[in-house]
Amino acid sequence: MAANVTEADEYIGANCIVIEDWTDADEASKGRILNVAGRTLARKYPKYTIPDAAAYEFANVLATAYNDTNKLARQGIEDFALNLTVTVGFKADLVVGPDADLAALIPQVALDLIGAENGVVISKRGVKWTVL
Predict the structure, then answer these.
(1) 119 CB neighbour count, 10 Å cutoff
(2) What are the residue ranges spanned by the domains of the chain?
(3) Which domain of life is it from (predicted)?
(4) What predicted TM-score, i.e. pTM, was given to this entire model?
(5) CB neighbours of 1 closer than 8 A, spacing ≥ 6?
(6) Distance between alpha carbon 12 and the CA centroid of its chain, in Å?
């Protein structure tokens, strides 16, 4: 993977819908986010070639999951107020904790890109046993 922040900025700016958390991050943070995205994808899918676009899509998701506001939720804050006019609350089951499995945040579009690169179909849905 030869992903870099400059190419990520261009890709995310052109192909992702919600990009504010990515664009608000400084260059060092973007580099770390991109490294974590690439490493997580490579660890989760070691048999496949990971295209840079998949890492960029995942990096954009991670930028939102680990933005400053969500960081407060991970630190245990349930809600807070700004100037007594705006109150922000967090739903406990939506918070990404410090021990969260980052692979759970991989978007389907990243999996589609990996699948297209490798000629396979990868889905977030898994096969599970059920009783009727």
Answers:
(1) 7
(2) 5-118
(3) Bacteria
(4) 0.79
(5) 38, 42, 50, 52, 55
(6) 12
